């Protein structure tokens, strides 16, 4: 039997600075601790353009630091950037092959908010989102993609405690980010088990 090919998961929320970067970081740590992270392509994106190019919300970063979960964020001291001569890929994240190469050299890239693209629907096995509006936005976008292969689901559908919706903490406080974190841990654990 051929070696099991890799799997891919894209976590999505409204702005890609609060919930989906937390889910991405939690899942990446779980897959790393399970020794299978090299079998996965893991990323996150937004349904909106609100925060494109911005680092994860500082409240989420503080929450992840408290739990010892590495989160890729843009260094604050230095502004080191790169750009393109065309607008072909404006808003897209770096090419997955380049990211994989960087990672083999231990060079962590920094996540910046990006919007979900048509290509995401064609290349990801799973697109896992946080609430009903993310779900309806994604299904609407998927309908305009010819060969969409992604399974579009609520991340909360994997929650053993059956909390289906992971609420937007943007106008919330530290405990709301803590709740997002706990829900992501419960859901990502079951999602990884189901795909191992
Ligand atoms: N919208 C809504 C909303 C409704 C209920 C609860 C939270 C939010 C909310 C609001 C945000 N940014 C403020 C409004 C942005 N502007 C809205 C009009 C277009 C120009 C941009 C968020 C930003 C990042 C991540 C999550 C966010 N979530």
Write a compact overview of the structure shown.
37% of the residues lie in helices and 11% in strands.
Rg? 16 Å
Query: Bound compounds, please?
Result: ligand 6LJ
Helix-strand sequence? EHEHHHEHEH
Q: Quick one: biggest sheet? A: 4 strands, parallel
GO cellular component, one term: cytoplasm
Protein name: Low molecular weight phosphotyrosine protein phosphatase
Domain Phosphotyrosine protein phosphatase I: 7-194
Organism: Coregonus suidteri
Q: Could you walk me through the main structural features you see in this protein, from its secondary elements to its overall organization?
A:
It is a single chain. The chain is an alpha/beta fold and 196 residues long. It is built from 6 helices and 4 strands. It has a 4-stranded parallel sheet with strand order 2-1-3-4, with helices on both faces. Strand 3, helix 5 (132-143) and strand 4 (151-154) form a beta-alpha-beta unit. The longest helix is centred in the C-terminal third of the chain and has 21 residues, at 174-194. The radius of gyration is 16 Å and the shape is globular. It binds ligand 6LJ. The ligand N#Cc1ccccc1-c1cc(NCCCN2CCCCC2)c2ccccc2n1 binds next to loops. It is found in: Cytoplasm.
Topology of this protein?
Blueprint: E1 7-13, H1 19-33, E2 40-46, H2 58-66, H3 96-104, H4 118-123, E3 126-129, H5 132-143, E4 151-154, H6 174-194
Parallel strand pairs: 1-2, 1-3, 3-4
Ligand 6LJ binds next to loops.
Keywords: Cytoplasm, Hydrolase, Protein phosphatase
Subcellular location: Cytoplasm
Domain Phosphotyrosine protein phosphatase I: 7-194
């Amino acid at each position: 039997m051929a070696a099991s090919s890799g799997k891919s998961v894209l976590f999505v929320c409204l702005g890609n600075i609060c919930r989906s970067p937390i889910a991405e970081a939690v899942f990446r740590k779980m897959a790393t601790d399970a020794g299978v992270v090299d079998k996965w392509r893991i990323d996150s994106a937004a349904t909106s353009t609100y925060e494109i190019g911005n680092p994860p919300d500082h409240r989420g970063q503080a929450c992840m630091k408290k739990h010892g979960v590495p989160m890729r964020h843009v260094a604050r001291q230095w502004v080191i950037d790169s750009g393109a001569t065309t607008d072909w890929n404006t808003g897209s994240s770096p090419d997955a092959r380049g990211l994989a190469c960087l990672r083999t050299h231990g060079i962590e890239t920094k996540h910046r908010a990006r919007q979900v693209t048509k290509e995401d629907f064609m290349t990801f096995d799973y697109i896992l989102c946080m609430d009903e509006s993310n779900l309806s936005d994604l299904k609407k976008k998927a309908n305009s993609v010819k060969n969409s292969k992604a399974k579009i689901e609520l991340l909360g559908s994997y929650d053993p405690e059956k909390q289906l919706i992971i609420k937007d903490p943007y106008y919330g406080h530290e405990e709301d980010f803590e709740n997002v974190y706990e829900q992501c841990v419960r859901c990502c654990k079951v999602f990884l088990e189901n795909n191992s």
